[in-house]
Every structure is written in structure tokens, then in C-alpha cells.
């Protein structure tokens, strides 16, 4: 009886670890095969689910990071979105614009990642989950001297990975 219990518990732990496994190659393929130009200089990240019909996202400049826009997206029709400016300082200029935000969110949704930052030099940073236990980065042809690459190891081509 103890053996059966041990086997069942082992199977449950194995299944739980597989659920958290991320298919890195499919993420890279989606980034490489989709037009991410609307994300240039922008970050977009998931914030949560509202009700059964809406999801919430944060959108802002990649560098330097500052105040974010909140975006509510209809889960059935991605073109139906509402942009919230309440997180911007009242004196702050509307620095991205509605069309830029909409195009960035639509490009992001096609990638199916938790969060993405696309720097103006073409470098891409993707934390793959909330606790950032796996981070993916595509270096640009001219890597920035301002960014720390020490914790990343080469994955393939110009893609690098960091696992905690």
C-alpha cells in the first residue's frame, strides 16, 4: 500500500513540474514569425482577468520605464479595447497615443507570452512567468552596454536564457 501511495505522489509531482515547463522554441518561433514592429520601444504585460469577457494589460515605454497605460481587452474580439490613462500623472503628456497602444497590444496578443519588452535597439526581453524563474532575451546586433547579460546563457542563434 505504501508503494502505491509513493508512486501516486511521485506521478503527481512529475505532472505538476511538466505543467510549469515552457516551450521556449515555440515562443521564439512566434516572436520570429510575427511582426513585432508595433512593439518597438514598448513593453506590454498581462495584469489579470476581469470577468469572463475581459483581460487587463499594462503598456508603456520600454526605456526609460515610466507611467503605464492600463488596457482592457475583450477576450472574444481583440479589436475591442479600452485604454485607461488613470495611472498617468495628470500633468503628463499622452506619450504613446491610442493607435500606437492598440497596435502594440494586438502584436503582443499574437505572441502569447506573459510580458515582453522590445527596446528601440531591437533587443527583446521576455520574462516567461510571474516570478521570472525563466527569462528569455534576444540580443540585438549591437548589444547595449547598459544592460547586464552576465546571468544569461546562450540558447541558440541570438537568443539567451536565464533560469533561476
Q: Which structural class do you get from the secondary structure elements?
A: alpha+beta
Which bin fits the share of residues in helices? 25-40%
Separate helix tally: 3
Order of helices and strands: HHEEEEHEEEEE
Major β-sheet profile: 9 strands, antiparallel
How does the overall form come out from the CA principal axes? globular
Would you summarize the structure shown here?
The chain is of the alpha+beta class. Helices cover 26% and strands 29% of the residues.
Explain how this protein is built.
By secondary structure, this protein is of the alpha+beta class. The radius of gyration is 19 Å and the shape is globular. It is 26% helix and 29% strand. It is built from 3 helices and 9 strands. It has helices at residues 2-19, 24-33, 98-111, and strands at 42-49, 54-61, 69-74, 81-84, 115-118, 124-127, 134-138, 153-156, 159-163. Strands 4-3-2-1-5-6-7-9-8 form a 9-stranded antiparallel β-sheet, with helices on one face. A hairpin with a 7-residue loop joins strand 2 (54-61) and strand 3 (69-74).
Features:
164 residues, alpha+beta, nine-stranded antiparallel β-sheet, 3 helices, 9 strands, 29% strand, globular, disordered N terminus
Give the SSE map.
Blueprint: H1 2-19, H2 24-33, E1 42-49, E2 54-61, E3 69-74, E4 81-84, H3 98-111, E5 115-118, E6 124-127, E7 134-138, E8 153-156, E9 159-163
